[in-house]
Write a structure and sequence with these properties.
Layout: H1 5-19, H2 22-27, H3 31-43, H4 47-61, H5 68-81, H6 84-97, H7 104-118, H8 127-142, H9 149-176, H10 180-193, H11 200-216, H12 220-240, H13 247-271, H14 277-291, H15 297-324, H16 327-347, H17 354-374
């Protein structure tokens, strides 16, 4: 009979112990009892029980005796419980209060690790990812040599990869929704911010493709500039990835861009305001000349025709301007028309526009005589 009392007594002790709750401990006036139960629950990994008691102990003991041990347990208990935001705040606070503590280094590392755990999937808002990176950088600054350096570097690599995926996802979304300007710029920013991204080759190609789509959908005044940027982007891509599987497609965009840049320059010259027309035609002539080595024979013949017509249109444009100018401005405009005629005759003596050009020249000359006669 006596032998049965021992296990029975042990069972009763377990029952009593298991009946103890944080509420009961919190009501007790015995601080040592509180310390004992908080430590017991912490060691048993019953953090939800330990946390409220540890929190009370920190308040009760502050200013009377050291709370470093209990504050450390409180920080760690919150972390183990999965309350990473609370844990992160208190780990940083622990470091600030106990900078010389043997646990200061660990707590500053855990501060960063807490935010690491708050970092969400790449497609979600990355505020906590940035906070985690800032926290790890602060840790590196405070502890350049640490036992936690390897783990911290691995964490930083994972966090940066999330930001890479987020930025890549944004750029791809812009492209899928036909927002080509935003897509191209986002791909460029992606390479600038993350030059070592795994998808760097594809991103470089998408810069070419994105700017090509952007140029195709541009207004005439911006086409030449934007097609030339396609060419630049292609050359950058080819230099970096001369054996890329995307090179053939990118090259097709580059070939087309030489022609479309020139064509776009003439389109803008033809549709530009009358008082700016000569300037834009001269730009188109220069563009046709610079792109000539990259154009096919047929395309060069086409641009030669545009050039011939352009020089004629400068004559006509100045004559038409003279008709709407005030009297004190007519003479200068008519002189420009005559000057343009002589330039045209020198360049295209057998032009199909010659008869009309001569008629404009004759009219301009006669009107100048009248103006001078009236003067």
């Amino acid at each position: 009979m006596g032998l049965l009392l021992v296990p029975m007594a042990f069972g009763m002790l377990l029952t009593v112990s298991s009946c103890e709750t944080p509420e009961k401990v919190l009501k007790s006036p015995d601080i040592e009892y509180k310390k004992s139960k908080a430590t017991f629950w912490y060691n048993k990994k019953e953090y939800f029980k330990a946390i409220p008691v540890l929190e009370e102990l920190i308040g009760l003991l502050k200013g009377r005796q050291s709370v470093e041990e209990y504050y450390y347990m409180y920080c760690m208990a919150n972390y183990k419980q999965g309350d990473f935001m609370i844990a992160g705040y208190h780990f940083k606070n622990f470091y600030d209060q106990y900078t010389t503590s043997a646990r200061a280094e660990e707590c500053l590392f855990m501060y960063a690790k807490s935010y690491m755990n708050l970092s969400p999937k790449p497609e979600l808002d990355q505020t906590y990812t940035y906070k985690a990176l800032e926290a790890y950088q602060y840790f590196f600054n405070m502890f350049p040599v640490s036992n936690y350096t390897t783990e911290a570097n691995e964490a930083v690599a994972k966090l940066r990869r999330k930001l890479e995926k987020k930025a890549l996802g944004n750029a791809e979304l812009y492209y899928r929704t036909s927002n080509y300007k935003a897509a191209a710029v986002s791909y460029e920013n992606l390479l600038r911010d993350y030059p070592d991204i795994e998808e760097a080759e594809k991103v470089s190609f998408m810069i070419v493709k994105g700017f090509m789509k952007y140029a195709e959908n541009s207004i005439p005044s911006r086409k030449m500039e934007r097609y030339n940027y396609v060419i630049k982007s292609y050359n950058d891509f080819k230099y970096k990835y001369p054996s890329s599987k995307y090179l053939e497609e990118a090259h097709r965009y580059e070939i087309a861009a030489h022609y479309l840049a020139t064509k776009g320059a003439f389109e803008w010259a033809e549709t530009s305001p009358m008082d700016e027309k000569e300037r834009h035609y001269l730009t188109a002539f220069a563009e046709a000349k610079s792109q000539a080595p990259y154009l096919t024979e047929r395309q060069n013949i086409e641009m030669a025709k545009h050039t011939e017509k352009g020089y004629f249109m400068i004559i006509k444009n100045y004559y038409l301007l003279s008709e709407i100018r005030k009297s004190n401005q007519k003479e200068a405009t008519l002189n420009q028309s005559i000057k343009s005629y002589y330039n045209f005759v020198d360049l295209f003596p057998n032009s199909k526009y010659m008869k009309e050009a001569e008629k404009l020249f004759k009219n301009s000359t006669e009107q100048l005589k009248k103006l001078k006669g009236n003067g």
